[in-house]
């Protein structure tokens, strides 16, 4: 395998179950140019340096391009306007300062620690209810039975989205998650489907926001949609819709992977499962190690705004850059014995939630959901064992996690 084709191997679904040997080869050169012109950054030190470098831009999505309809009014007037608006109002993870900072500030004003901590009891009740539904069975599918429905119910409740509408935006969320995959960005048909999907979920959000303004409730979407007070600035409607879509999709995708990867790791390390069952106070440090060892997001893409000299390589202006977080998490220059799962690891400064300006806004909520879910699963599933190892994985390489996780059990405690 040529060194300049290694990242293509990361994207190959055949390597989804264990990409870590490929990451080890990539780390031999901290910044490596691939055949397609992208620069892959794979060591902890180099990633950390670039996360705080203003020359690296998050505004790297290709221009929005809606498919032709055959209607001249739509194709020559309406769609070009929609494309310009979409390009100027991306979700905040695809924005740079100052726009990113402004939008993030609006979100953080509603996504408060008090609001998130207030969900502890609700998350615990949801986990118990979902596990109780498995009573009388000798197998469970963790994704279908718990790690997908739990974060979906929580994010719907937090945002104020009717959970009964979840089936219609499940497919939307799955499709929009492909925006993080380099292959999908280069595929014209995939890009057209993504644009069409975004238009559909945006129309849904527009109607919901209108309803929130008529009948506000104690939820994040009502707060974000609240008219500006005297002397205050409100989020514009287009940015509000993009932000609502981002929060809903993120609530679908990353926490599902965190819970599933966490349980898979515990089942592969039954001693740690038993330790967590005996001592639930271990949960926070265990979750941090899962975030390092099997993170829900493996990489994010960026674009160089200027030439950047780093680790003996010059990244030229305009080049695409891939920050390979999961590789940095296993860098032996930063972590002792990095391929060992060790919840007692000290100084665990991982990239499980990214870093820098774009550190995940939902990290506190994801930690709460994962801790409660894993502790309860260890306590209530009787003698759980894996049905398949490795399990089948989802198609994407960026948001990496099993598509289902079959577990054999002797009952529900």
Task: Give me some keywords for this one.
413 residues, Cytochrome p450, five-stranded mixed sheet, three-stranded antiparallel sheet, 50% helix, globular
For the largest sheet, list the strands in their spatial order: 1-2-8-5-3
Number of strands: 10
The overall number of domains is: 1
Task: State the distance separating the first and last CA atoms.
Answer: 49 Å
Please count the helical segments.
18
Strand content: 5-15%
Secondary-structure-based class equals alpha+beta
- Helix/strand order, N-terminal first: HHEEHEHHHHEHHHHHHHHHEEEEHHEE
CATH architecture: Orthogonal Bundle
The Cα radius of gyration reads 22 Å
CATH class call: Mainly Alpha
Shape: globular
Mean pLDDT: 92
What summary fits the major beta sheet?
Answer: 5 strands, mixed
**Named CATH topology:** Cytochrome p450
Fraction of residues in H or I helices: 40-55%
Low-confidence stretches: none
At the fourth level of CATH, the homologous superfamily is: Cytochrome P450
Walk me through this protein's architecture.
The chain is of the alpha+beta class and 413 residues long. It has a single domain (3-408), classed as Cytochrome p450, CATH 1.10.630.10. It contains 18 helices and ten strands. It has helices spanning 6-11, 20-26, 44-51, 72-88, 99-110, 113-117, 120-132, 142-147, 149-159, 166-176, 182-186, 188-214, 220-225, 237-268, 270-278, 283-293, 325-328, 363-380; strands at 31-33, 39-41, 56-57, 139-141, 300-304, 308-310, 313-315, 320-323, 385-386, 406-408. The chain has a five-stranded mixed sheet with strand order 1-2-8-5-3, with helices on one face. Helix 7 (120-132) runs antiparallel to helix 9. The longest helix has 32 residues, at 237-268. The model has no long low-confidence stretch (mean pLDDT 92).
């Amino acid at each position: 395998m040529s060194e300049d084709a290694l990242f293509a191997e990361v994207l190959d679904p055949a390597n989804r179950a264990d990409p870590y040997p490929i990451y080890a080869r990539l780390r031999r050169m901290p910044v490596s140019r691939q055949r397609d012109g992208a620069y892959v950054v794979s060591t902890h030190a180099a990633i950390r340096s670039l996360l705080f470098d203003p020359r690296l831009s998050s505004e790297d999505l290709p221009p929005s391009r809606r498919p032709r309809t055959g209607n001249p009014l739509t194709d020559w007037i309406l769609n070009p306007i929609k494309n310009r608006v979409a390009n100027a109002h991306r979700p905040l993870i695809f924005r740079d300062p100052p726009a990113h900072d402004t939008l993030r500030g609006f979100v953080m004003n509603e996504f408060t620690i008090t609001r998130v901590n207030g969900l502890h009891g609700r998350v615990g009740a949801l986990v118990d209810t979902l596990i109780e539904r498995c009573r009388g069975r000798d197998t469970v599918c963790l994704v279908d039975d718990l790690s997908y429905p739990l974060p979906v119910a929580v994010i719907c409740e937090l945002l104020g989205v009717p959970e009964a509408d979840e089936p219609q935006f499940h497919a939307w969320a799955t499709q929009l998650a492909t925006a993080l995959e380099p292959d999908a960005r280069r595929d014209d048909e995939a890009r057209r489907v993504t644009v069409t999907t975004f238009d559909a979920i945006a129309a849904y959000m527009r109607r919901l926001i209108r309803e929130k303004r008529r009948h506000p409730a104690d939820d994040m979407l009502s707060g974000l949609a609240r008219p500006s007070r005297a002397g205050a600035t409100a989020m514009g409607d287009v940015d509000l819709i993009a932000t609502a879509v981002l929060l809903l999709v993120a609530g679908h995708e990353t926490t599902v992977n965190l819970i599933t990867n966490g349980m898979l790791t515990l089942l592969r390390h039954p001693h740690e499962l038993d330790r967590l069952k005996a001592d639930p106070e271990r949960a926070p440090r265990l979750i941090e190690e899962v975030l390092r060892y099997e993170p829900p997001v493996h990489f994010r893409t960026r674009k160089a705004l200027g030439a950047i000299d780093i680790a003996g390589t010059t990244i030229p202006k305009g080049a695409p850059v891939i920050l390979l977080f999961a590789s940095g998490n296993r860098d032996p220059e930063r972590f002792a014995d990095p391929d060992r799962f060790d919840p007692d690891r000290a100084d665990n400064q991982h990239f499980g939630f990214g870093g820098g300006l774009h550190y995940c806004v939902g990290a506190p909520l994801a930690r709460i959901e994962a801790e409660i879910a894993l502790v309860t699963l260890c306590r209530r599933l009787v003698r759980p064992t894996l049905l398949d190892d490795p399990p089948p994985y989802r198609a994407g390489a960026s948001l990496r996690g099993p598509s289902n996780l079959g577990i054999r059990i002797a009952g529900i405690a």
